[in-house]
Amino acid sequence: MKYDVIVIGAGASGVMSAITAARQNKSVLLLEKENKIGKKIYATGNGKCNFTNDYMKKECFFGNEELINNMFDNFSKQDTINFFNELGILSYEKNGYYYPNSNQASSIVTALELELMRLGVDICLNSIISFVTLQKSDNKYIVTGKTLQFENSDSKNKKKKNDIIINEIPFKHESSNLIFSTGLLASPKLGSDGSIFKIIKNLNHTFTPIAPVLCGFYCKGNAFKKMAGVRIKSKISIIDKNNVKREDTGEIQITEYGISGIPVFQVSHCISELLLKKQNVIGQIDFLPDFPSDKLRDLLLANIKILPEKKEFKYILNGILPDKLWNEVFNNVNLDSSFTKKGIKKRELPFDEFINNMIDKLEKSIKHYSITIEKSRGYEFSQACLGGINSNEINTKTLESKIYKNLYFTGELLDVDGICGGYNLQWAWASGYIVGKNIK
Question: Which of 65, 294, 320, 356 is the most exposed place for a label (fewest CB within 10 A)?
């Protein structure tokens, strides 16, 4: 089959590039190795799909600055909202996040499917790419591979759970333009497993170092097992050479392996960059970001005054911090949480000096709790990746390869990633639009 455009990968950016190219009267084939389009879209926003964000600033993105600037110049968050409104999606905004009014990510995917259908885009699911070659005599790309058929699949050959392959149908397609939109390595179960990398490298393209972002991290020490299950509003700061490199505030989740939660995701790019450089990564947690140190000291002193003589000092944290944190907050600064007022007097220790020293240490432990971050949870638990195709090999305006004409890359394959909140989808929509618009 011959097409004007072949898109490999039917995620957000691939579908957007297919739609944009088809709107310019190009014949388009969309190849996807999974059994449905937009698998990652279903998982975004806890299944609600926050497809863009009202706070759209360059500081929310990492990677190649020229690529990021190009997005802001060509496809804004308002363009995204308008695009989906035109597809029948009624949207609403909550805390800056835009969602479909249905609160269903499936609404976004269905709208995209309907538009692909309206435009006559051919879609081949369960299709594995074997080779991509450039026929230099007429500058045509030849894409070969096989489409898998499954037992008990429906009329569209959509695989059912635990189904088995009953047939492999070879294909060979020809196109004037080729777009790679396959993602990198994040969430491999949803399709981005790196299986296309070899084919891209065979086209003489290289990758910058890749690492998972928007994920949790393993931390050093056994204390996390004792604190596991705690969710608390905190501020996390990443310290590099005694300077705060990145910080964020929100509900941090403490797990058996370490830390997770939205604030951790928001600083994950910084962490993964440092880990790639083989640096020691130090995080600092403020468990009471809205409570100044002087007020904390006053509160702890007041709680000590009303604490019964025989009750352990850890109880002064009651109502201030979750009880799973009490012992660790004391242990972290070498304090005995089981000590009592009676114990101080029995040992004939200077009471005021002892109390002031304890308050000093507790304030430090609560407001500056230091952790050593060892590694990420990996691609399986990440929502995005840093790194991608070397930007020196890409025309940052058109996203076309500098090595081969009419070869393009979109979405996560490029060296751009964003924080949580619809930013990575915004990059996907924008990069797909830019490529589709620049198809010759």
Answer: 294
